[in-house]
Amino acid sequence: MGTPLPFRLTLASGSFGRRALLEQAGYTFAVQPADIDEPTDTAFGDIRHYVGDTAWRKAAKVAPTVADGLVLSADTVAWMHGHVIGKPVDRADAKRILQMLSGSVHELWTGVVLWHRPSDRQMIWQERSLVAMRAVSDAELEAYLDTNQWVGASGGYCIRETDDPFLTIVDGSMSNVIGLPMESLAVAFADWERILTPR
Fold first, then answer.
1. Positions marked active-site
2. How far apart are CA 73 and CA 98, in angstroms?
3. Is the pTM of this model over 0.85?
4. Residue 76: other Cβ atoms inside 10 A
5. Environment class of residue 123 by beta-carbon count within 10 Å: exposed (0-12), middle (13-18) or buried (19+)?
6. Which pairs with CB-CB distance under 8 Å and at least 24 residues apart come from 120-126?
7. Measured between alpha carbons, how far is 68 from 132 in angstroms, rounded to an integer?
8. Looking at CB atoms within 10 Å, which of 90, 127, 132, 183 has the fewest?
9. What are the catalytic residues (predicted)?
10. What are the structural domain ranges in the chain?
């Protein structure tokens, strides 16, 4: 179990994966999804700005409604050949995305924001992982699509923490691929504890 945080934590996300990661780490938190319109491609020309800006807008939506503590937001997307690979709009789109990823390596980026209330001081960072997908047969793809695990998932997939049949992390952390880089988040929480603890 994680060490209790010396501040209230509000997760500005409805992501089941992010909630599960925080719960597994032993953190206590409230959930308040931001529900913003996410862009379909990067207007900035690079993925680091894309995930950072989207995560910031999520935090900015929720922060004014929180009296005190830290608001945590994140945005995770796949990135390949200079384009965002977002959440599939339907089964046909999921099939198109997964066929594109099959037999290749892609980047998976997460932007994270910690927004302190009421001071409105902020900490923002981005983290990258590299994910390889083995070549997937048509039959395997159709069987996977039947599970509906692609629904609401960036890149059209939800990676298994152990023994994933299709995906391998080449570089970076598993938690980042799930949607929240827990290793760097723990460091950031410790930094906030030092900032907010009176000397």
1. 75
2. 27
3. yes
4. 27
5. middle
6. 120/63, 121/195, 122/56, 122/59, 123/188, 123/191, 123/192, 124/52, 124/55, 124/56, 125/52, 125/184, 125/188, 126/48, 126/51, 126/52
7. 41
8. 90
9. 75
10. 9-196
**Per-residue model confidence as pLDDT tens for the chain (199 residues):** 456 788 999 999 988 899 999 999 999 999 999 988 766 555 556 899 999 999 999 999 999 999 999 999 999 999 998 888 888 999 999 999 999 999 999 999 999 999 999 999 999 999 999 999 999 999 999 999 999 989 988 888 989 888 899 999 999 999 999 999 999 999 999 999 998 887 6
Which token pair is 46? 């690079």
CB 128 within 8 Å of CB 153: no
CATH of domain 9-196: 3.90.950.10
